[in-house]
Design a protein that fits this description.
Length: about 220
């Protein structure tokens, strides 16, 4: 039976009228700008202090970015112990590399690049992962997906298992482009690839993933 996976999150809200919406958007924008400037200033100072050996400053950087790094590395393993080790490894490598950080990209992007490399090396160390079939009840539950009954957890598990059957490079580029929703430019930066390679690898990886899904009578909407 075909399973359609056209979305991984649902947003349900009532639209505001145009006038109220514009005011809220403007106020939110101003607050974002102020918060962003304050965060940028604090982060710049913490980086400067870190380069001078201040471990407390680095602790503040970790606290500021650990959620995003942790979320990214959850794409690479769902084993809690291994995940914790990958997060720790990322921040250790970042600490060791921080003296060479020039600020050409935001620290968050720089950390994401390190985390992606750590996750990829973890995959390479494990080699191609063996997958186990999804239980029939999960496939049965995904057979009739609609806006009210869409099960994000089951869909995510399905995609995770399909991706695990791909070679590491294919799995990596699809994780960046579709799960992390990175642009081609951002994906190229994180992976250290050319944009042309990202495009070609994505095209080939999508074809392989769709074939894997089709072999299991699943239709993916990518």
């Amino acid at each position: 039976m075909p399973v359609h996976l056209s979305q991984f999150a649902l947003v349900c809200s009532q639209p505001l009228n145009e006038t109220v919406n514009a005011v809220v958007a403007r106020l939110f924008s101003l607050r974002q700008d102020a918060d962003s400037n304050a965060t940028h200033t604090a982060e710049f100072e913490d980086i400067r202090q870190c380069k001078n050996g201040d471990s407390d400053a680095y602790r503040r950087l970790i606290e500021r970015h650990q959620t995003s790094v942790s979320k990214l590395l959850w794409r690479f393993t769902r084993d809690h112990t291994e995940h914790e080790e990958l997060v720790q490894q990322t921040f250790v490598e970042a600490w060791m590399s921080l003296p060479g950080f020039r600020g050409d990209a935001p620290l968050a992007h720089w950390l994401a690049r390190i985390a992606t490399r750590v996750g990829y090396n973890y995959w390479r160390h494990l080699g191609r992962q063996k997958t186990t079939p999804l239980p029939d009840e999960i496939l049965e539950g995904l057979a009739h997906v609609d806006a009210e009954s869409f099960d994000v957890q089951h869909a995510a598990e399905l995609v995770h298992r399909l991706l695990a059957a791909l070679p590491e490079n294919d799995r990596l580029v699809l994780t960046m482009r579709y799960l992390e929703q990175c642009s081609i430019t951002d994906t190229a930066y994180r992976l250290g690839w050319t944009q042309t390679r990202v495009k070609v690898q994505t095209h080939r990886a999508v074809a392989k993933l769709k074939q894997l899904a089709a072999d299991r009578n699943i239709e993916l909407d990518l």
